Amino acid sequence: MEIASIDYIILFCLLLAVVAFLYSSVGHGGASGYLALMSIFAIPITVMKPSALLLNLFVSGISFFFYYKKDFFKPKLFYPFAITSVPAAFIGGLIPIENNSYKIALGLVLILAVLRLLGFFNNKEREMTKIHIPLAMGIGFGIGLLSGMLGIGGGVILSPILLFLGWSSIKETAAISSLFIFVNSIAGLSGYFLSGKSLPTESFYLVPIAVFGGMLGAYYGSGYYSNKVLKYVLATVILMASIKLIV
After folding, report:
1. Which residues span the membrane (predicted)?
2. How far is CA 80 from the centre of its chain?
């Protein structure tokens, strides 16, 4: 990794654990946060995408386990999205995207993540409505394709949509998003591998750190209220990264 000194490595690892903690607490894998951090620390794009997907896989799986144990997972709300998102994420993982386009698209996605962390999409739960399956399948395809191309699980996009449409409660949304991210990450990595690429060695060094933060976050988030102060700090970090990518 292109990090100047041991101090930067320690700082990066600490922030990575915080990102995993915060995202897993709301049922996410944290890819947008990992990508933001890696961008700030000038880690090459060739390392960013596969590393984010790998960490996403572990953290979202842990998050789903904890939310599932609390009985927040509703299969009928999950399947319509997954049916179309998984093949779309696989296709997206096969599509090469040039550096400038990647940075701009990722920057825009990160702004969405900032808005969600600041509570723009989930301050209040709307009146519950019945899921519209054809629309859900279309949404799943679009999110899956974008997720595979950018190296994210798509939860940061799916969650606000679920809450805005009133298809699930906040806790149910967290459970659905975590499994959605998990399966999309598998599909995205599969497409990445089939394109002839392999995981960089750096990716594996980051897994234990993300798992540690993810376990704490999932335990805390599935049973307790999230820490608003840390969310604002994370939102600031991601916003800085998105500006850096877009400008």
Report:
1. 6-24, 53-68, 77-95, 101-121, 133-162, 174-194, 203-223
2. 19
Using CA atoms, how far apart are residues 147 and 180, in angstroms rounded to an integer? 11
Interval 222-241: pLDDT, tens: 777 555 655 676 677 677 66
Half-sphere exposure of 77 (CA within 13 A, CB side): 26
Question: How is the chain split into domains, by residue range?
Answer: 6-246
Q: What H or E segment, with its residue span, contains residue 230?
A: helix 228-246
Token pair for residue 96? 């090469």
Nearest to residue 59, comparing CAs of 225, 207, 233? 207
Residues 6+ apart with CB under 8 A from 238: 32, 33, 36, 110, 113, 114, 117
- Cα 51 → chain centroid: 12
Structure tokens at 29: 């894998």
